[in-house]
Amino acid sequence: MTDLVADISAAEARVDQLRRQLTASTCREVGCDMQSYGGMNAGCGDGCGCSIPVNVCTRCGDCDYGDNARAVTTRAECAERSAA
Ligand SMILES: [Zn+2]
Ligand SMILES: [Zn+2]
Fold it and tell me: Among all ligands shown, which has an atom nearest to the Cα of 74?
């Protein structure tokens, strides 16, 4: 009997997880509504102090943790500056 209860809670947890994944993937398909959430250190060099934006989707709560086009540009520009 206890096995059955454990099975059910495991299944419920799985359904929960799948439902969250579905929400997130549907949102990504139509395009997340990414809004600026703040900034973080670009971490591109030795204390260069570059900062990059962090965006969060207003619908599914997906966060890019600074993994965005702006961050790529910022790091590239910083590398150019330090190479010059
Ligand atoms: Zn989203
Ligand atoms: Zn930098």
Answer: 2
Task: Note whether 26 and 10 are same-domain residues.
Answer: yes
pLDDT tens-digit map of 15-59: 999 988 888 788 888 899 999 999 999 998 777 899 999 999 998
Provide the domain limits for residue 62. Answer: 33-84
CA 39 / ligand 1 centre spacing (Å): 19
Distance from the alpha carbon of residue 40 to the mean position of ligand 2, in angstroms: 12
Structurally, how many domains does the chain consist of? 2
Residues 8 and 26 reside in one and the same domain: yes
Which structure tokens are listed for 36?
Answer: 């600026």
- Does 52 lie in the same domain as 13? no
CA angle 59–75–48, rounded 5-degree value: 110
0.85 exceeded by the pTM? no
Adjacent-strand bridge partners of 41: 51
Q: How far is the CA of 56 from the centre of ligand 1 (A)?
A: 8
